Each structure stands twice: as C-alpha cells, then as structure tokens.
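User: What would this chain look like folded?
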Amino acid sequence: MKKELHRSVHYNDKFSLSKAIVSLEAILPPPGRDILYLCIGSDLSTGDSFGPLTGTLLKRTGISNVIGSLDDTVHAKNLEEKIKLLNNKDYVVAIDATMGHYKDIGNLFFAKEPIRPGAAFRRNLAPVGDASVVFNVAANSIANFLVLGCTSLNKVWLASNLLTRAICVLTYKRKKELYAANR
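Assistant: Here's the prediction, encoded as structure tokens.
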C-alpha cells in the first residue's frame, strides 16, 4: 500500500510550526467532529517514544481525547485492546514514529490515511486511524531495533513539542469557530 503523504515538515525548519498547523489542518475533518489522538509507541526506546511523548504533552496541555502516553503506552502487545476503547464516532489521528529513507530523517509526515504500526519490525498489525502523523526518526536498515534505540532523544522531544503545539493551536481555532457559528 503506497502512502499518500499530504505534506512533510522538518522539525527544525524555521517555519515548522506554521507548516505543521497547515499540514495537520489538511488531514482533519471539518470542525464539529470529535478528534481522538492515538499515540503509539514505547517508552523503552528513544526512537519509538515519539507517540507516547506526544500523548503525554497533549494530556498536560489539556487535550482530553488522547490514548497513549508515557504512563500508559500503546504498543504491539496491547494495540488490539486499546483499539476497542475507540469510539466509532471519533475521527482518529494515529501518531507514531517511523523509519524510512535517510533523506527524510527529522520529517513529520501528515497523511489522510491509516498507519500500520510495527511495520519496521515486520509485524502484521491492523492499520489504525482515519489520518496519521508519523515522525521519521531514523533510516530504515537491517538493524532497525538497534538504530531505533540509538535515536536522539532531543530530536524526538523537539518533534513531539512541535506536533503538540500545532494540535493545541488547531484545537483552539476549531473551538473558536464552533463557538462563533453557534452564537
């Protein structure tokens, strides 16, 4: 399955926040529909902690529709159990780390399609999400497990902060639009 990527944003780009906001807005439904952020990954590997770290930051900023954090990770062993918690009415944005081409390291990719968690390790897990945001933490190689564990925590931290800020800005904007429409 070929991924249809809407946009990519490098976490360290001078205009990364505005680009991330525009990219995220392109994959979200119109205001009024509830959005749930499914943050996938493990806190046992720095590269794979992008999802849980983002989930933790979202919860700390007051975003309530979040499944997956450093305290309660969503990973291959409990993914099916966590999917059962999803409300079919919610629009699910899956957030995860990925490994890809070396030229794409440091890019956040925004797509209006599900992701396949665990693909770097050849795990056959069901696709999840109505839309997805993935962060390319490292180049895909024959030693993915080792490479993932040696990923820069600072890079993952900065990307998580960037995505969290973009989500917060859009959450505020969407609530403001709904409020104005209902006045």
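The domain at 5-181 is CATH 3.40.50 (Rossmann fold). If you want, I can go into more detail on any region.
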